[in-house]
Design goal:
Layout: E1 20-23, E2 29-32, H1 46-49, H2 57-72, H3 77-87, H4 98-103, H5 114-135
Antiparallel strand pairs: 1-2
Amino acid sequence: MTDQLDRITTPESFDAMSPIAAIDGTGVLVQLDTNWIARAACKGQVNLFFGIAGERPERRVRREAAARQVCASCPVLTPCREAARLNRESGFWGGENEEERAAAGFPPRSVSRRSVQAAASEAARTRHTHTHAQAS
């Protein structure tokens, strides 16, 4: 079913007229509203929101701090975050980096750093513990 999805790649590749779909938390294919894309504050700043291969941690911290500032004043922060979570995106989206999305239960499709894997594992453990506690 995933091959039926139109995957978001970068903010510059968006076409507000093209439907974007994702599989929600229940496994249902849903179409996302992409009208917010035209109002995104990040347009044209791909290098700020997507690190280069082999990016050093210090550079990543500085880049993400600058990206976070852009997101803080963006009028479409919430729909951007929702799209990134549903599409399991890599990079910085909606004020969140990959670790933050993974900790919220939305790891990227391709985990590129150990810190992202650790956040995803911790989120899974927390959900598992929470689910078992509710069942008791």
